[in-house]
Amino acid sequence: MVVGIEILEAMSHFSSMFNGLARSFSIKRAKNPGNGDGREAAEAMAKDAKKNDLILRSSGVVNTDGSDNFASVFSRRGQKGVNQDCAIVWEEFGCQADMLFCGIFDGHGPWGHFVAKRVRESMPSSLLCNWQEALARASLDEDIDLESDKKDQRFHIWKHSYLNTCALVDRELEHHRKIDSFHSGTTALTIVRQGDLIFVANVGDSRAVLATTSDDGTLVPVQLTVDFKPSLPQEAERIIQCNGRVFCLHDEPGVHRVWLPHDESPGLAMSRAFGDYCVKDYGLISVPEVTQRHITSRDQFVVLATDGVWDVISNQEAVQIVSSTLDKAKAAKHLVESAARAWKKKRKGIAMDDISAICLFFHSTPLS
């Protein structure tokens, strides 16, 4: 898509909710005249972020000076081989001081770790491009009043950007020359925080749980996402209508999996994922569920974790484990290690899955 001068001029008149975008976008465009779709601009932003140590991958902590966010990240390899989980936290996402992007990815299949890392690498920059273009289109649409309902307009723009991004990432992955994703894939759970709003996009069975303070002062969990398992009626219906099959193996009662019409494969335990092209014609999709939440003073933190955590830890237990960790930099590690111990007690004889978590606190100075 060609972004012309008139769009750049219109962007300079955005309301305060978009302050900073026109500046960063115009600067990158000036350095790259003739850029057709803004992708170079987004990639340049990613490079700048890396140089400034604003991107964290895998295990660690992010606490940028002056930021309202504090993120703790940890991942532990299971007993099935290489760790196929990976994560990312990106402060000042898109060169916007009030924005953060974080995501957790759970690969599966022979090439799952490569697929997960590829999606982690490609999704943020693609999302930035789609977000910039959606903002530009909205600024030129006379039927859209950006000032009338900022919250709804933000959500519409982010949802549209996420839908386009996930479709593009899945298409590009299918044609990647060095990654065989026919029988391999990854889930993706990501969050964008923009000021006092968070936008959650979920593809697969990882889960986001918010910890908020109730009227009596106790912390309670609020599940922000749906675990997209084949056992969900709406998911099973779609798969069956596409001639896929959903059933449990005799030695795994209660674990519903996705199967090809006439073959005992691939046996996926999730109904949405990137990759896995062997079953993309049979009901598996990479369409995200996108939701938003307004963050208030009662909301303390959000946990993003792969199913390796939620298979053995309840939402309430996760909130208690994280809130009870005195050193918040170690909160994700405490949760992951607690899940690993729970695996040994609750799932004896079953190989432990990879276990990963991000704990995103909504305070620059974490609560102790």
Automatic annotation (TrEMBL):
UniProt entry keywords in alphabetical sequence: Hydrolase, Magnesium, Manganese, Metal-binding, Protein phosphatase
For molecular function, the Gene Ontology terms on record are: metal ion binding; protein serine/threonine phosphatase activity
One of the GO biological process terms: response to water deprivation
InterPro entries per record? PP2C (IPR015655), PPM-type-like_dom_sf (IPR036457), PPM-type_phosphatase-like_dom (IPR001932)
Q: Which domain of life is it from?
A: Eukaryota
Q: Which Gene3D superfamilies match?
A: PPM-type phosphatase domain
Task: State the EC number(s).
Answer: 3.1.3.16
Q: Which residues are in the PPM-type phosphatase domain?
A: 70-362
What is the required cofactor set for this protein? Answer: Mg(2+); Mn(2+)
Enumerate the catalysed reactions.
O-phospho-L-threonyl-[protein] + H2O = L-threonyl-[protein] + phosphate; O-phospho-L-seryl-[protein] + H2O = L-seryl-[protein] + phosphate
The similarity annotation says:
Belongs to the PP2C family.
Q: What is the protein named?
A: protein-serine/threonine phosphatase
